[in-house]
User: What shape does this take?
Amino acid sequence: MTETIRIPVNVTNPGQFFACCGLLEVAARRWPGAEGCFDAGVFRIDRCGSLRELLAAIIKAEPIPSDPDDAETSPLILESLSLRLDWWHDETSGGKSFKSWAGRQKVVDIVRAMHATFAPSAYTADSLLNAPAILYDAVESKKTIEPLYFDARRAAQAQSIDVGFSPDTHGMMMPVYAAVEYLCLIGLQRFRPSRRDDDTFVYTGWTIPLPPFGAAAAAAGNIQMPGARSYAFSLLYRTKYLKGFLPATMIGDAL
Assistant: This one.
C-alpha cells in the first residue's frame, strides 16, 4: 500500500529546502515512482512507503568514502541507494560553489557524525527538519563536530554582528540541525539553485508532484507552474574559504 509523507518545512531556509530534495532523492531510490512537491508549508512525498521506512533506508545507506586516504574531500558512496555524492568536485555545473568546508575540516567525519543521528525512532515528521542537538564525532563520542553550515539557522548564528561576538571564536557548542545538513548534502547532488549574480542564488518551490529528474529542473526555475514561488539567498563567508547558507527572501511567483 502506498502512503504519503508530509514534512513541515520552512522554504526560506535553503538548507531545509534542499534537505527536502534529498528526501525525495532517497524516496525515489527506495520506491521507484515516488514524487514530491511543496504544498502549503509542507513537503509532500507521494507514491511511497512510511516515514519510518524512509528513515530506515537512510540509516542503512552508511556513507563510505571512495578514497579512504582523503578524509577532507573524498566522494561518498551510499551503496544501498546506489548513490555517489561528489558534487563538491563539480566545477562544470557549479556544485563546487557550495562546498562550505576547507582546510583541515574532514567531510568524512562530519558526514558520519550527522548520519549517526538517524537512529531508529530518532525523528518524526515534525522534528526531522527542526530537531537541534550538539553534534558528536561518530568514533570519539566526547569530541564535538562542526556542521557544514547548510542550515540557515546555524549560519545566521555564526555572524558576530548579530549576537555581539563570534560563537565560533569562543569555541561555543552551538546546536546543529544534523538531519537538515545531511539531507541537504544528498539533495545538492542532483538539485542546484540557479545563479542570479556573483553572490546570490535562486531556487523555486515546485507545486506539482514530480520525480527527482523533473523536480531538479523545477527547483532551478526551468519549469513554470501555478503557485510556484522563487527564493533568493546568499552565501555567508565565515572566513575566506568557509561558507554557509544564509536565509532566503521570496522574490515572487515563478509564473
In short: Residues 159-170 have pLDDT under 50 and may be disordered. The chain has one domain: 3-253. Residues 3-253 form one domain. The CA atoms of residues 148 and 156 lie 13 Å apart.
